[in-house]
Write a structure and sequence with these properties.
It is a single chain. It is built from four helices and ten strands; from the N terminus they run βββββαβββαββαα. It is α+β, with helices and mostly antiparallel strands. The chain has two domains: 111 residues, FAD/NAD(P)-binding domain, CATH 3.50.50; 58 residues, no CATH class. The strands form five sheets. A two-stranded antiparallel ribbon has the order 1-4. A two-stranded antiparallel ribbon has the order 2-3. The termini are far apart.
Length: 185
């Protein structure tokens, strides 16, 4: 296998705009892949296109099951839409900044690797602005006043089968399973 080494850990993705209007192309990240090109005649059980979240998890799980795996990535780094960049000795999440407990696969991976969460500044709202009168009037209200009413409205709106969607989507995180159930009926 022949490889060509890259000189730095700067990805081609992104840019930095400095004071004074100067630009610097690319961001510094540990996610940069130092192998630009490789020639490989080995046979693989599975070839995965893309080293983003799904591709990397698939490769790990297949490897654990004894499969030989090749990952092909077009970018010069792993991580897909998510990676950490360093600017002025500060770490910044690029892309995958916010996650929610309703993302069970993300939570599984965070738990697996012992990652902790840091609440984003401003992530908890005190007030919310709503458009009223067909979008002609903007009103700002405390979330403590607005959320109970919004919750009630969304509950009624979403209750398409009388039991909060449990008949239509019995397995909401496995939509194809719900489709198979509907097709069989």
């Amino acid at each position: 296998m022949a490889t060509i080494e890259k000189p730095s850990n700067r990805t081609q993705d992104g840019f930095i705009c400095h004071a004074g209007g100067t630009f610097e192309s690319g961001l510094i990240t540990t996610a940069v892949n130092n192998i630009q090109k490789s020639v490989n005649n080995k046979e693989y059980d599975v070839i995965i296109i893309g080293a983003g979240f799904a591709g990397l998890i698939a490769a790990r799980e297949l490897s654990r099951r004894g499969r030989s795996v090749l990952i092909i990535e077009a970018r010069d780094r792993i991580g897909g839409r998510t990676f950490t960049a360093q600017v002025d000795n500060q770490q910044y999440e690029i892309g995958g900044t916010w996650i929610h407990w309703s993302q069970p696969h993300i939570w599984t991976e965070m738990t697996r690797y012992g990652f902790s969460l840091i609440e984003s500044e401003g992530a908890v709202l005190d007030h919310i602005s709503v458009l009223l009168d067909n979008g002609c009037r903007l009103k700002t209200v405390p979330v403590t006043d607005f959320y109970p009413e919004l919750f009630e409205i969304m509950t009624k709106f979403s209750d398409i089968d009388g039991v909060q969607g449990r008949i239509i989507f019995p397995l909401p995180h496995a939509l194809l399973a719900a489709l198979k159930t509907c097709v069989r009926s």
